[in-house]
């Protein structure tokens, strides 16, 4: 059904100027993702997966084609409207966590709620809940420098889902983590996907992640080469 | 959000303490430098003004023509009325009569025979009138090296070097041998009650200061004075004001056909002081201007670097939904706060240093010895001066340059695709 579509992309092309020429990062991409999907954009370095993720998130603009996210055509929106879309309906998880080092775990997770002007009492409840989801209740007042890589990424996940967005975009979320932490992180995201019906889109080439994905979109040289549904992913367990 | 950002600024010393310290030091240096230049230049002008020129000076047209000869026979008469009038007409200045005279100083021994003798350059100053600021502007309490200040017209202060040269002790009597304003021979006894050191190079060598009442008795100049000197109440010489005052006064009061009519001259009109004033003002403007520009570049650069260092944070904030405008405004607000706090502390520090140097001064006695033959009156001790502009001059580099640097750095938020900020974040 149309209302269940979270992302709809038609004929997307993205070119970057390089010297006096252009490099084509994405070419004629067509893609539709539905609510609650747990999808990976997979491919080698330079295949265009991060660029696609950035365009979906409204952080980058397409050179050509139509991109609609959560029923909003990004081509027709202003920068402010895209910022509002991200603030209210999206969460981001980065490879290098991007936590603010001078703030505690609680404060880092709190930031999206402050931007959404949630009152302080409700904020405290939601932050505490998000931190509990990712299993960091005992680290609430710690700063990022005092956390392990896994704990930092769990904090970043809590920040991405604290306002219960419809869509979470994760760019190589396990790239800096060991196997044990990677599995732990993925299990948390699977659980959140199921409990909150949040759609997740990953850009990754990490084999460990792929085992959890229910849909894998293969990218190569800026084009979708394969769109694969996984019958029995770990996330179904 | 403001509370959240404030918390971050306070915790991140590289965003708060370090920039505040840089701004503070730069502003303090600018203020101190400006204050020292002000004080040194105005000190030079004030020393000349106190000893001979005033900020403005009234004398007869005839006296002006022969002033090098100290022609008291051409002196102003009825000076009390003149002082009262100019005090009323020009209340931003204070006015004082002065008799400048020379003569021979004779020191008798116990038998009344000449023990020592020497030429003297003497000034009759109005020490005792109510509201007189002469002791203040001569800084006599600080410059007195022995004895006390005069208490009546027959007491005199001698420069320490003249007293030493004449072998005088405090309490001894000296006889002035000279001529009255009617060119008659005169002798008059003064008791030396104190010695002073002006630290003004050659002037100290043969100077005597007496109250104008004693000088009038000695020179038969009742009600008369060589000149009436005017000083800005702030003691700060403003050349533009002095020149305007001179023009205004002369237009009304000076008669070119009457050689005894009063004429006003400004400090710049005396002893080539005009060249000095112009040169000093230009040099001061250039030096302070260059220093100000350097400080602005440093603070601009700091604002710029501070902004560049935070591209990653900016990217993340944009990703989680802050608009470009919100991020840009918060960066500028932050730099305004940092610049303002740094400037306030820097201004306080700069004013403190300037005030200290205003009170203590920097002693250049040895260097000034080499200028002993100069015609200009140079102080041996340079003092800074706290002037009104020092309270706000620091805000230009402190706040403006810091904010401009941040604004320039923040342009990247608008110029670049957000994805580019992330790439910079991850490198």
From TrEMBL, chain A:
Gene Ontology cellular-component terms for this entry are:
membrane protein complex; plasma membrane
Q: Which residues form a coiled coil?
A: none
Q: Which GO terms describe its molecular function?
A: ATP binding; ATP hydrolysis activity; transmembrane transporter activity
Which intervals hold domain ABC transporter?
7-237
User: Pfam families per the record?
Assistant: ABC_tran
Instruction: Provide this UniProt record's keywords sorted from A to Z.
Output: ATP-binding, Cell cycle, Cell division, Nucleotide-binding, Transport
Q: Which InterPro entries match?
A: AAA+_ATPase, ABC_transporter-like_ATP-bd, ABC_transpr_LolD-like, MacB-like_ATP-bd, P-loop_NTPase
Q: For this chain's UniProt record, which GO biological process terms are given?
A: cell division
Q: Which PANTHER family match?
A: IMPORT ATP-BINDING PROTEIN
* Name of the protein in its database record: Cell division transporter, ATP-binding protein FtsE (TC 3.A.5.1.1)
| Organism classification | unclassified sequences, metagenomes, ecological metagenomes
């Amino acid at each position: 059904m149309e209302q269940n579509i979270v992302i709809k992309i038609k004929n997307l092309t993205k070119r970057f100027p390089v010297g006096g020429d252009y490099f084509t990062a994405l070419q004629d991409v067509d893609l539709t993702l539905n609510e609650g999907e747990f999808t990976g954009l997979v491919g080698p370095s330079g295949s265009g997966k991060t660029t696609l993720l950035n365009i979906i998130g409204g952080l980058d603009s397409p050179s050509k084609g139509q991109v609609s996210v959560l029923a909003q055509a990004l081509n027709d929106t202003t920068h402010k409207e895209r910022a509002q879309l991200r603030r209210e309906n999206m969460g981001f998880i980065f490879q290098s966590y991007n936590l603010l080092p001078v703030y505690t775990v609680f404060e880092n997770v709190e930031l999206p709620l402050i931007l959404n002007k949630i009152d302080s009492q409700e904020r405290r409840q939601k932050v505490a809940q998000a931190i509990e989801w990712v299993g960091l209740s005992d680290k609430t007042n710690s700063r990022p420098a005092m956390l392990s890589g896994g704990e930092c990424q769990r904090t970043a996940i809590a920040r991405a889902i604290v306002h219960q967005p419809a869509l979470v975009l994760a760019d190589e979320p396990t790239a800096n983590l060991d196997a044990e932490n990677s599995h732990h992180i993925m299990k948390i995201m699977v659980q959140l996907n199921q409990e909150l019906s949040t759609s997740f889109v990953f850009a990754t080439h990490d084999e460990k992640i792929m085992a959890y994905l229910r849909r894998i979109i293969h990218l190569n040289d800026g084009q979708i080469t394969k769109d694969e549904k996984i019958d029995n992913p770990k996330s179904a367990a | 959000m403001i509370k959240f950002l404030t918390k971050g600024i306070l915790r991140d010393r590289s965003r708060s303490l370090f920039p505040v310290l840089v701004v503070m030091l730069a502003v303090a240096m600018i203020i101190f430098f400006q204050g020292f230049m002000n004080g040194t230049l105005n000190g030079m002008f004030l020393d000349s003004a106190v000893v001979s020129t005033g900020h403005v000076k009234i004398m007869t047209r005839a006296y002006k023509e022969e002033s090098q000869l100290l022609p008291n026979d051409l002196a102003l008469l009825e000076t009390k009325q003149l002082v009262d009038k100019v005090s009323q007409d020009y209340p931003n200045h204070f006015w004082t009569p002065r008799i400048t005279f020379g003569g021979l100083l004779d020191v008798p021994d116990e038998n009344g025979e000449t023990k020592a003798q020497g030429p003297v350059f003497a000034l009759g100053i109005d020490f005792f009138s109510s509201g007189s600021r002469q002791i203040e502007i001569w800084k006599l309490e600080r410059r007195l090296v022995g004895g006390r200040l005069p208490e009546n017209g027959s007491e005199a202060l001698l420069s320490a070097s003249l007293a030493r040269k004449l072998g005088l002790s405090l309490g001894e009597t000296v006889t002035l041998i000279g001529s009255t304003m009617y060119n008659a021979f005169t002798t008059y006894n003064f008791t030396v009650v104190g010695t002073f050191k002006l630290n003004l190079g050659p002037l100290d060598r043969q100077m005597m200061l007496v109250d104008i009442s004693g000088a009038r008795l000695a020179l038969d100049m009742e009600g008369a004075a060589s000149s009436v000197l005017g000083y800005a109440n702030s003691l700060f010489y403003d050349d533009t004001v002095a020149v305007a005052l001179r023009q205004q006064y002369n237009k009304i009061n000076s008669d070119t056909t009457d050689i005894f009519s009063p004429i006003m001259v400004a400090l710049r009109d005396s002893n080539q002081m005009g060249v000095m004033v112009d040169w000093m003002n230009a040099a001061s403007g250039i030096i302070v201007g260059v220093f100000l520009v350097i400080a602005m570049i440093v603070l601009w650069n700091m604002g710029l670097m501070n902004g560049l260092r935070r591209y990653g944070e900016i990217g993340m904030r944009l990703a989680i939904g802050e608009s470009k405008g919100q991020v840009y405004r918060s960066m500028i607000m932050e730099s305004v706060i940092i610049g303002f706090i740094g400037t306030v502390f820097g201004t306080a520090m700069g004013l403190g240093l300037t005030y200290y140097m205003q009170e203590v001064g920097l002693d250049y006695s040895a260097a000034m010895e080499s200028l002993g033959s100069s015609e200009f009156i140079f102080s041996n001790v340079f003092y800074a001066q706290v002037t009104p502009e020092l309270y706000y001059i620091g805000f230009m580099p402190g706040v403006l340059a810091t904010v401009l640097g941040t604004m320039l750095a923040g342009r990247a938020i608008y110029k670049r695709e957000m994805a580019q900020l992330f790439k910079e974040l991850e490198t």
